[in-house]
Amino acid sequence: AHLGDLDAIRSLIAAGADLDARDDNGRTPAHVAAFASNDAALAALAADGAAVVLTSTTERIHERVAELDALGGNAIGVAADLMQPGAADRVVATALGVADRLDICGNNAGMIAVGSAATDADIEHTTDAQWHDGIERNLTTCFAVTRSAATAMRGRGYGRIVNIASTSGPVQVFHGDVAYHAAKAGMVGFT
Fold first, then answer.
1. End-to-end C-alpha distance for the chain, whole angstroms
2. What is the pLDDT of residues 36-55, one digit of tens each?
3. C-alpha dihedral, 18 to 55 to 187 to 116, nearest 10°
């Protein structure tokens, strides 16, 4: 689905979900973990009344929460570095704490962390540390969040996981940052 097409996004992430159903507190059942910065998806979910749990590596996530709340959404932010052990579990636990369920998980994280410098290099100049960092940040984080979310979803017998990669890697590449391209292609294979 094209990320600008809100109806396609709603169909993709909510196929089969009754987004109009309400719990005893008037909340809808859709909860999302780790839609870090996908504005179109977040806006669509907020407009549909979903409770949205989102994460970022810094406290700036709370600014995004305020923006979604201003649109009438119900957003909760979790500052977490998903490269750290247990961080993905903490984000999913937060989503489960909202209404004891997780219906939708979207992975859209990657690139570089705020405050970090890009470390682009051609393959012959890519260090082992650059490679490992790129794979961890752009693929392993997706695995960690998906594993945690899938555990909760399987327990209920329902859930949707949407992994958003990039055209960089699966479709095209540019010079530098070979780990990023490999990781984004890996997300397509993982999905």
1. 15
2. 446 677 777 777 777 888 88
3. 160
Phi and psi based region of residue 71 (left: phi greater than 0; alpha: psi -120 to 50; beta: remaining): alpha
Please report, for residues 16, 58, 100, 140, 183, the alpha-carbon distance to residue 136 in angstroms, rounded to integers and kept in the order given: 32, 18, 29, 5, 8
Got the DSSP string for 35-104?
A: --S-HHHHHHHHHTT-EEEEEESSTTHHHHHHHHHHTT-EEEEEE--TTSTTHHHHHHHHHHHHHS---E
Instruction: Collapse the DSSP code of 108 into the 3-class scheme (helix H, G, I; strand E, B; otherwise coil) and give the result.
Output: coil
Give the orientation angle of helix 6-14 with respect to helix 39-47, to 10 degrees: 70
Tens digit of pLDDT for each residue in 127-177? 999 999 999 999 999 999 999 999 999 988 988 888 888 777 667 667 778
Tokens of 112: 């570089």
Q: What's the predicted TM-score (pTM) here?
A: 0.77
Contacts of 55 (CB under 8 A, 6+ apart): 33, 34, 36, 61, 77, 78, 79, 80, 82, 91, 109
What is d(CA 109, CA 187) in angstroms, rounded to the nearest whole number?
11
